[in-house]
Amino acid sequence: MNFLLYFSINMSRIRLRGLSVKRMNKNSGFTFIEILIVLASVIFLVAITGYAYDGIKARSRNDMRTTAIRQLQVFVETFYAQNTYYPTRAELNNPSWQKANLKNFKESYLADPLWTPKNADCTVNGNPILLSKPQLGCFGYNPTNNGISCANNAQTCDRYTLSATLEDGAGVYTLRQLD
What we know:
The chain has a domain at 72-176. The chain is α+β, with helices and mostly antiparallel strands. It is built from three helices and nine strands; from the N terminus they run βββαααββββββ.
């Protein structure tokens, strides 16, 4: 048993292979090593918690994106039920058109959870707009007529794709017209 360390503990001292170390007095406090171990443990726990919290926030924003895309789909399908065609992207991005054609629609429905008015790619006059293809912070809406993009109001759109880019490599969430 030479390779094993023999510990014997009594009330006044700790023996480790013949070496004796006096126990700390109750009033002497913590050693530097003990403080370092506690500090390292706390830092480790904070790091793990922070990482998990960021993942939870990203999943929450992804849930908000999918809910927003479904809500947009309800408005687009309601418009289709009343008019037998889908709105163009220009129409859906126009606040006057929204007010006249989509009851209870709010411009904020076009905003991704990460959207800010500083996001020049999907902002006009400080309001969110839909892009032809989504990117993080911006939703996508691509109406088509027989597979060709509906670029202007002269065309009637018979299909569409609504989409949002999800965080954490989760891909793109896409909804198409109801058939």
